[in-house]
Amino acid sequence: QEPDWQDDPVDFLRAASEEFAALGVVASARRCLATIETAEPTLFVGVELATWDAPSGDARALPLDALGRALGRHPVRWPVNLVLLDAVADPVCDYLRTKVRPFYGTV
């Protein structure tokens, strides 16, 4: 599910968008809250990469570092997990791809 509009971490999402824009490898990013089994909700941030290559090596590591910087600027109350929407096939990724509007996109 998407966070309730009153709980949506807009400052964190803005910071994450700024970090993703600076990278130049993230094409889009979406977010949702998901509960897996009986655990507390987790904020999943799914990213689609514009390229798998980066000047510094593997582009997959860059969004994780960017999220860490965004969390340092604006912590959220949930644990945050990054998923690469292009690399993983699971129910959370499917939901993010088909049901959630991006909070960041280069298009």
Structural notes for this entry:
- This protein has helices at 10-23, 61-73, 91-99; strands at residues 26-34, 42-49, 53-54, 57-58, 80-84, 104-105.
- It has a four-stranded mixed β-sheet with strand order 5-2-1-6, sandwiched between helices. A two-stranded antiparallel ribbon has the order 3-4.
- The relative contact order is 0.26.
- The protein has a single domain (10-101), classed as GMP Synthetase, Chain A, domain 3.
- The protein is of the alpha+beta class and 107 residues long.
- Helix content is 34%, strand content 26%.
Task: Output the keywords.
GMP Synthetase, Chain A, domain 3, single chain, 6 strands, 3 helices, 107 residues, alpha+beta
> What is the fold named in CATH at topology level?
GMP Synthetase, Chain A, domain 3
Strand order of the largest sheet: 5-2-1-6
- Please state the average pLDDT score: 88
Q: How much helix, percentage-wise, in residues?
A: 25-40%
Summing up helix and strand content along with how strands pair, one would put the structural category as: alpha+beta
What's the N-to-C terminus distance?
24 Å
CATH class: Alpha Beta
Integer tally of domains? 1
Sequence stretches where pLDDT stays below 50 over 5 or more residues: none
Radius of gyration: 13 Å
CATH 2nd-level architecture:
2-Layer Sandwich
Q: Which word captures the global form?
A: globular
Tell me the fraction of residues in β-strands, as a range. 25-35%
